[in-house]
## 1
Amino acid sequence: MLHKEIPFLRIGLPLCFGIISGLYYHPDITFLIYVAVIVISGFVISLWFNNYQANQFYGLTLTFSFFICGLILYTNEKSSLSTLKPGKTLFTCTLSDYPEEKGNSVRIIVKLNSRIEGNNFTPVKGSILLYNKKDLTSVTLIPGDLLLIRCSPVEIVNRGNPYEFDYRFFMENQGIRYFAFTNSSDFIKHTSPVHRKLIHRALITRQKIIDMFRSSGIKGERLALVSAITLGQKSMLDPEQKNSFMKAGVMHIMAVSGLHAVILSMFVLYLLFFMKRKLNTYRIIITIIVLWAFAFVTGLTPSVLRATLVFSFLQVGKLMKRPSNGINSVLASALFLVLIRPSVIFDAGFQLSYSAVIYIICFYQDLYLKLHFKNWLTDKIWQSAVVTVVAQAGTLPLTIMLFNRFPTYFILANITIVPVSNLLIITGCLIPLFFHVHFLCHILAIALNYLTGLTEMLTFRAASLPYSTIENIGITVPECIFLVITIFLFTWSLLKKKSVPIIYPTVFLVLFVSAAGLKDFSTKNTSELIIYNTPGNNTIGVRTGKILNLYSDTSLIGPEVKRHSAVLGLKINPVQLKHSFRCIKAGNKKILITNYLDNKIIHNLIPDIIVITGPKPELAYDLDPVFIQKKIMICAGVKRGFYLPGQVVPDSIHFVNKSGAIVKRI
């Protein structure tokens, strides 16, 4: 039975459902009192069923309790973030990470400690994202430093484009609800703490190792690649490098996670091959210590913590001569992370890594045994291919939903690139150990430099192949859920001897097709006006069925439009705006797109919707207020400081750059 073999499944599922319910419901004290009464009553009543073979009443009450715990945990996490007042404010804070250089600024994340108002210090919880002008001040900052800053917090908001990435939700799950623009004069005081937290020491250690790589002669793009693959520091990567790895389907080697933990643990176990029998206990303990040391120097990121916890659980089970179920160990590590930070279940990295690991544990052995090769090299290639296929099957729906693409040569890329990256990871870990042994460090640095170049070259070649990736595909959240269940059940049915009846995966396949068909039917039979919130240009879309006529002052199609069209399967028909105004008939509506407006244009065209474009549109001061109040007016691409004529009623205007994109049925 699943609840006996995998007890953490019984705990984890209701806990996660409770966390998800926290997105839609925020319990108050009255609700909690009622729930407490129900739970206590349920456990008391369940005592009457103890003599039965199965106490289902107790099981239901326990499951409900875990559900409520998830709801409370998530609610407490969100309520712990303080609400900040707008305007210039003094804050005491702690630097969370090294400053990250951007195009025209330096990105700094600080954890807020208190707000200063006169002589009063009010405790504040949460972090704030600072965009500081480039200067020498930010260069000397080290994680854990104490700062006194002055800034004007601005709440992070989304642009409101259809199906866009929910940046506000993502940042809030990282404990960041506000951002601010600062310069060197806003950093009033900077001191070093007496004791730094463990996480800050880990980040400092990681930076020292990057400096060791740099001192060994590894520079430029190769230094960025080494730092990403060995230490998970991806901020130094060029966008083209990231894109090549994504197109090749090997982006996972840059996320320090299970792959790195397996490589390092196997390497240490092979080095300690002589420690067997009675010494095997010490061999495993040393491997666990090395793995936790690696987790420390990579900054204690959630991805590597997941892998380290799973490995530790599995090995401790062997030491205690109580081999644990692999899935149970994986879920135990997940539960540990969820209790620390409930919102971690919404992280893309969390979802992708656990999906891949669960699929590998469930299906790798069954698929691998389908073919047998006597040749050692052929067998290793088959092993690598099996791991790749199984992991890709587990992450396919999430990959399509999150990234709107699918790498077609992922098997070939993983078979060729992953072995090279394995050597790169091991070599990169050896350099800090032998950094002071100069001749050996020099040899390792040459090898690391070569392996980095080879990895980059192979990735670029794979990404450059014809049809290397299927672009602009997408699915909605319900479709993703149905597809995940369908693939899992079909895979289980095909590979397991005690397979589930084929009717179950078929049912979910029908649900997936129905969800996709319903979305397609709704799209084909509706029309919309979409004013995209695209900074720097005007982008107006008129969707008629599955055709998106895109009116823009640039020939480039922005990522906001691409994602929208990918999810709904739209065909884009770009039209560049070259004239001062354009009148479009769509459905039963007449839409006027213009950067100039007066009464003559209004009375001649009689539009139903007016879209005002341009950074500084020209609006006549004598516009007919009665007519304007009856029409929908939208301002797109208007710069800050623009104001409307006094006769125009502000309530009839929608500013895209302030209130977000607008989607209206026509």
Note: The chain has a mean pLDDT of 84.
## 2
Amino acid sequence: MEYQERVINLFKNDPALLKGYKKSKLAVTLVEAIEKEIIEFDYTKKLNWQYLFDIFNQLPDLMKGNITLQLELNDKLTYMHNMLRNLIHSKPSNLPDEDNYNLLKQLIEKMENCLLRIYYDSPADYNPDKEEFIEHIVFTAKSLTCLKVACSKYPYIINSFDELGIPLVERVLDAYLMALNNYLSKVNLGPLDDLLYYDEVMKVIFAGKIKIDSYSRERLLTKIKDFVLRQNILSPRHKEKLSFFANNIINTIMETYQEQTIDYLSYKCEIHTKFKEAHMLEANRIYMTNKNIGPASSMRHIISFDCENAKEIDDCLSISLSDGIYHLGVHIANPSAYIDFNSILMDEALRRTTSIYLDQCIPMFPPILSENVMSLNKNANRYVHSYYFDIDATTHELCHFEIKREIVTIYDNLENKDFDRILKRGCNDPILENTVILLNKVAEILKQAYSLNAIYAKVNADDTPQTQGGSVVESAMIYTNLNVAKLFSERELPFIYRSHTVDDCQIQELNDLQNRLKKQKNTSRFINLLNLLKNQYPRAYYTRENKGHFGLGLEYYAHVTSPLRRAADNISNLCIDTFLLSDYTKEDMKRVIALIDEAIETINTKRKTIEYYEEEYALKKILENKQ
């Protein structure tokens, strides 16, 4: 009787008699038996493969610690895995039953768990719920934080396969290529968020303990090459970007190091650190024609309180008290008074979406405008939107709210620490001292309008310590944003809202998955990760539908108070000018709605790209300083 046949008979009937056999030879023989069954597989024949499942249960013990044997059998097992995948994908459509198809899926799961048990200590067995969890992290929640934690603590999960035997790395590559296709499908190129996200996922996977054979690696590279060949390129710029992102992911798969400089990062994220000559010519023309804009229409004493060395000053405050009524003025820079919405400068601002503050500022508007004629600088006359609130000092009721387009003279520019100093010690300027005292009192009333969620405050906190002056300004801005949003919502006019919501449906899905996992063995590590995922705080976003702001405890919210550094605020101001301060037509409404929708898509989709850029930029600066 041949050795293989004798071993298989003993394995099926009395496996205890195999204890004296040499482990390495026994493992090779059992793997060859599995290969023979796979080669002879036929969808129409009745199969009894229970002993193959038993072989995979035993193989880890036979191969554990034997690196030479693992290397010898790795390619064979990988080849067999690909054979199983091909058999699964080639299932005939006219099968009388699914029995053999299900056997193939069960066998590929056993093979994968076997490989994981060989390379890692006590991994949890495969099951659909855990696969659903990995899918949720990577493709639904899109949480790099959770993925990195999972890969560092339980590295075998990056070698997971779905029920059809498709590895995680291949599914991520498919998502990357789909995101690249969406990006290239737009005339002016589309959003980068998903593309950069799946790029990072691939890096996390390849930085972990991924077991990828030459066949699978070549399969990934072939997918990329086929994708490139299928593209119908729109322009030289599209062709250039296609080449960049295709080579970028090829480098990751081939584990080839590519030095990623600041210039490389800026190109990848499409962060323009400089303005084009056309933008600068337009900015210079606007600057020259707006040096003197005429006399102020308001006699109020208007003062800014800002962070140290602020260059773009887009909000100021004024206040008086008479007959028990606080007359609060919030005065906001008005870029649209200088720049037409059809201007290339407004187009560029909407493309940039925000100013980026690093060790240098990457502004939304050219500095000759944002730091000069549009900035609310001391002793200068400036175009503003003024928001006037009459608030009862006793009942704290808002008695009157009005919005005006004005020219104002800025009385003074101060830092937040100056506010604190004057509040404690007073100053020689009675106007300034009285303003600080009244603002400090009215701020306590304004803060009653909202309830800052503790987690939201922590997530959105910056590194600078909060001063009393900063707190007062913050309360005035939140109060203004709230009342403008409320006004538009009540009048049912088109607007861009700042929304912050908790997805109860997603939380419930995770709870259901968690409950299923609790009923199974070896799932505590996954349940811990699920808790991490559930506790990730939702992000705020822009929408044309008012959905309230959970983090601030508000039913209405918008952004109108920082138009020099946020594109959304300029859209808000366009809505104010069009629907509140002017007569408008149906055509005006259609035009503005189209602008709102376009801005919402651009800003929401570019948010993560900018965060990615900021994080990578900071890391590169740290590395540069260490060299």
Note: The chain has 23 helices and nine strands.
